[in-house]
Amino acid sequence: MRLRSILLVLALMAAPVLLLAQWDAEDSNTKASLRGIHRAGPGVAWASGTGGVILRSEDDGYLWQQCAAVEASPGDAAKLDFRGVWAWDANHAIAMSSGPGKESRVYETLDGCAHWRLLSVNTDPEGFWDAIAFWNEHEGVLLGDPVKGRFVILRTSDGGKHWRRDDAPRLEADPRGEGAFAASNSALALGMDGKSIYFATGGEGGARVFRFARDGGSGSGHWSAARLPFTHRGEGAGVFSLAFRDGRHGVAVGGDYTHAGQREDTAAWTEDGGATWRRASEMPAGYRSAVEWDAELRAWIAVGPNGSDVSFDDGATWKAFDGSGWNALSLPWAVGAAGKIARLGGAASAHDH
Questions:
Q1: What is the rounded CA–CA span in Å between residue 119 and residue 303?
Q2: How far is CA 339 from CA 32, 49, 196, 293, 301, in A?
Q3: Ramachandran region of residue 3, left (φ > 0), alpha (ψ -120 to 50) or beta?
Q4: Termini Cα distance of the chain
Q5: In b/e form, how buried is each residue of 58-73, taking b as 16+ CB within 10 angstroms?
């Protein structure tokens, strides 16, 4: 059935058509827990995870190549947990590991992962890097947990070779306990205007979304933070993933990863660029670690350890369509524990037309 036909029937008979959406499993040839995934153009995708594993496909997932081992400097890089990967094509990619202190690092390959070079190491023992994203091959942002009471926002303008920390006072964390989550490399989102930055938090202090917005037409800007209308708080609760489909409409998902089946406070949406957020009236089926907009299907897809959900009304209501567990998204791809990689059937075909 062609995609346009699916959408037409979906408008009339939502529940049966949802069954047409499914994850088609691929063979990753690894048992690593995968939390990084990035689609880098037609047919090209990169994935990353525990045990220093980084994968690449340049044939639309038919074959996933395990990359050459990242150089073991400093320490043993083969033990690193690569929570984030960002790629521009089949040759050029950035991989970020997450961990305390020097276990958080950034590496780069320019030759299709045959060789890697170390770009940056977190030298602060208190630090822990959570997510990385780029507007282009030069400009990017890295998010880290609070150090000395303030969230770490690092910016680069030379492709990750050098990073500068944002010293804005409004990046202060809630003293009751607040941090970011490195579950899917999507607690950080960059605006399409090339300037806006968003990141999500959680913890005992509650869930918030921080936003950097440019001041008018100037090159300067300021940070603000919006508290989400969630009542559930805890060390493992909050917002785990953010995504925007344009400058105003976005979705935040999360919950409490220690209670994966709990539906309370797992999704919210905004229509004013993240200044204010509303709770979903019908929540996803449990804790969700990643969310993304599918422009062709005109729907939001969210995933977590107990399944996947879809929203056709900009995040206000969600319907479950799959019971498999996943960690991260870069549509049409999803990755999860034990080397799971899959492509979304139906919605995936929209990317190829």
A1: 31
A2: 5, 8, 33, 24, 21
A3: alpha
A4: 14
A5: bebbeebeebeebeee
8 A C-beta contact, residue 89 and residue 136: no
Arithmetic mean of pLDDT, 157-175? 96
How far apart are alpha carbons 97 and 69 in whole angstroms?
A: 13
User: For residues 209 and 322, what is the distance between their CA atoms, to the nearest angstrom?
Assistant: 28
| Centroid of chain to Cα 44 | 18
Fold of 3-352: Methylamine Dehydrogenase; Chain H (2.130.10)
The residues near 70 (Cβ < 8 Å, ≥ 6 apart) are 52, 54, 77, 78, 80, 95, 107, 116
95, 32 contact by CB (below 8 A): no
The CA angle 337-342-344, to the nearest 5 degrees, is 135
pLDDT classification of 13: cutoffs 50, 70, 90? very low
Show the CA angle centred on residue 324, arms to residues 321 and 326, nearest 5°: 105
Query: Can you tell me the distance from the alpha carbon of 52 to that of 76, in angstroms, rounded to the nearest whole number?
Result: 9
d(CA 303, CA 285) in angstroms, rounded, equals 10
> Quick one: tokens of 91?
């040759």
Higher per-residue confidence, 70 vs 112? 112
pLDDT of 26-56, one tens digit each?
999 999 999 999 999 999 999 999 999 999 9
Query: Locate tokens 């995870």: which residue?
Result: 49
Buried b (16+ CB within 10 A) or exposed e, 265-295: bbbbbbeebbeebebbeebbbbbbbbbbbbe
Greatest alpha-carbon pair distance for the chain in Å reads: 57
pLDDT tens sequence across 233-260: 999 999 999 999 999 999 999 999 999 9
> Which pairs from 99-104 meet CB under 8 Å and 24+ separation?
99/128, 100/125, 100/127, 100/128, 101/125, 101/126, 101/127, 102/74, 102/75, 103/75, 104/128, 104/129, 104/144
User: Which residues on adjacent β-strands are paired with residue 172?
Assistant: 150
Q: Provide the residue ranges of all domains of the chain, joining segments of one domain with +.
A: 3-352
Torsional sign, CA 258, 259, 264, 268: positive
